[in-house]
C-alpha cells in the first residue's frame, strides 16, 4: 500500500514539475505551484511568498484557498512570522499547533479571516540564493509529517528552477523592450515635435486590442509594432522630416517611403518578423487609397488597422510647427467621419470605448 502511495506521489511530482516548468510567465508558475502543493499534501490552502531582495521582505504574491485574495497583500520582514523565520534561517519547519507558536504572525489570519492551524513552511532556493518561501496550510486529515515535507522539498526544487527561469526571461524581455524603445527614441530625438508620440501610440493600440479581445500574444506583437511603427523615418533626410511648412507633393511621396524603410530595417531581426505588417501597412486606408500597396479592408493586417487609428488620433491631437493640434472632441469626430473609408469601423468603435475608459 505504501509503495503504491509513493508511486502515486512520485508520478504526481513528475506531472506537477512538467506543468510548473511549462511556462515562463512567473504569475502562472506561482499559481500552478500553489495548486500542486494543495494536491500533493492534501491541505486547505497554500501560498508562495516571494523574496524582494531590495526591501528584504517576503510578500504573498499568490495564495490559493479560502479568502486568499486578501492574504496576498501581506509583506513580512526577514525573521517576521514563521515564513520570515524560515527565510532568515533557510530551513524548513513542520508546525502542527500554529496558534501557539511564538513565531506565528497573526496579521495574516486577522486580515483574511482564515484560521491557520497546521503548517509546513520551507524555503525556495537555488544555488544558495533565496527566492521565496512556500507554505502548506491546514492538513485536511490529521497532521503534517516528514513525508509531506519531503514531497514539498522535491516540489520546491522544481519551483525554484521555474521561478529563476521566468526571472531570467523577464530580464531578457525587459532588455529587449529597452533596446526597441531606444531605437524608436532615435526618431523622436530628431523631431522634437513628436516627443512622447511612440508611447502614446503604443498605449492607444494596446487599449484598442484589449477592447477587441485580442490574445496576449497578439497584443505583444502589436505593442512592439506600435513602438517601431515610425522606425523607417530614420531613412528620411532632415530637410523633409523636420520641415516646418507643409510638405510638397514630391516631399510627401518621399516621406511615404518610411513605411517601406521600416519593414526593410526590421527584416534583419528574425524575432521581429511578425510585427513587420504593422510597421509596413499602418498608412493603408480601409477604402484602398493608402500606401504603400493600396491594400483595402481585410487585406490590411489587423495589427496595421489598429495602429492606423492610434497613430492618426495622436497626430491629430498633437501640435505641429504648421498647425495647432485638434481638441480631443474634434479628433473623435474626425475618426467617426472617416470610419469605413480611412479606418476600420470596428477598430474606431473599440478605440472610442477604450478612450472613454482612459479619460
TrEMBL record:
Residues 194-316 form the HD domain. The keyword Hydrolase applies. It holds the Pfam family HD_5. It comes from the Bacteria. GO terms for molecular function: hydrolase activity. Keywords: Hydrolase. This is Phosphohydrolase. It comes from Thermodesulfovibrio aggregans. The lineage of its organism: Bacteria, Pseudomonadati, Nitrospirota, Thermodesulfovibrionia, Thermodesulfovibrionales.
Amino acid at each position: 500500500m505504501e509503495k503504491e502511495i509513493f508511486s502515486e506521489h512520485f508520478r504526481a511530482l513528475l506531472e506537477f514539475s512538467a506543468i510548473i516548468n511549462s511556462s515562463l510567465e512567473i504569475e502562472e508558475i506561482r499559481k500552478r505551484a500553489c495548486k500542486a502543493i494543495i494536491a500533493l499534501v492534501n491541505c486547505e490552502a497554500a501560498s508562495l511568498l516571494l523574496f524582494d531582495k531590495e526591501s528584504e521582505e517576503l510578500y504573498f504574491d499568490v495564495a490559493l484557498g479560502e479568502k486568499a485574495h486578501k492574504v496576498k497583500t501581506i509583506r513580512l520582514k526577514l525573521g517576521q512570522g514563521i515564513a520570515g523565520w524560515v527565510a532568515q534561517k533557510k530551513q524548513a519547519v513542520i508546525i502542527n499547533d500554529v496558534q501557539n507558536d511564538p513565531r506565528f504572525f497573526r496579521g495574516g489570519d486577522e486580515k483574511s479571516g482564515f484560521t491557520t492551524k497546521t503548517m509546513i513552511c520551507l524555503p525556495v532556493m537555488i544555488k544558495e540564493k533565496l527566492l521565496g518561501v512556500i507554505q502548506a496550510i491546514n492538513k485536511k486529515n490529521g497532521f503534517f509529517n516528514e513525508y509531506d515535507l519531503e514531497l514539498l522539498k522535491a516540489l520546491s526544487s522544481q519551483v525554484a528552477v521555474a521561478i529563476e527561469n521566468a526571472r531570467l526571461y523577464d530580464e531578457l524581455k525587459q532588455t529587449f523592450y529597452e533596446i526597441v524603445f531606444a531605437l524608436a527614441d532615435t526618431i523622436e530625438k530628431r523631431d522634437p515635435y513628436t516627443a512622447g508620440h511612440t508611447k502614446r501610440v503604443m498605449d492607444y493600440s494596446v487599449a484598442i486590442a484589449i477592447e477587441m479581445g485580442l490574445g496576449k500574444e497578439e497584443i505583444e506583437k502589436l505593442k512592439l509594432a506600435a513602438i517601431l511603427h515610425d522606425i523607417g523615418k530614420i531613412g528620411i533626410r532632415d530637410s523633409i522630416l523636420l520641415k516646418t511648412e507643409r510638405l510638397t507633393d514630391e516631399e510627401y511621396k518621399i516621406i511615404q517611403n518610411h513605411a517601406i524603410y521600416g519593414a526593410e530595417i526590421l527584416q534583419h531581426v528574425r524575432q521581429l518578423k511578425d510585427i513587420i505588417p504593422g510597421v509596413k501597412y499602418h498608412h493603408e486606408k480601409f477604402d484602398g487609397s493608402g500606401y504603400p500597396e493600396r491594400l483595402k479592408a481585410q487585406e490590411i493586417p489587423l495589427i496595421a488597422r489598429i495602429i492606423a487609428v492610434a497613430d492618426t488620433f495622436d497626430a491629430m491631437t498633437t501640435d505641429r510647427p504648421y498647425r495647432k493640434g485638434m481638441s480631443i472632441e474634434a479628433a473623435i469626430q474626425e475618426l467617426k467621419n472617416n470610419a469605413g473609408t480611412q479606418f476600420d469601423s470596428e477598430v474606431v468603435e473599440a478605440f472610442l470605448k477604450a478612450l472613454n475608459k482612459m479619460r
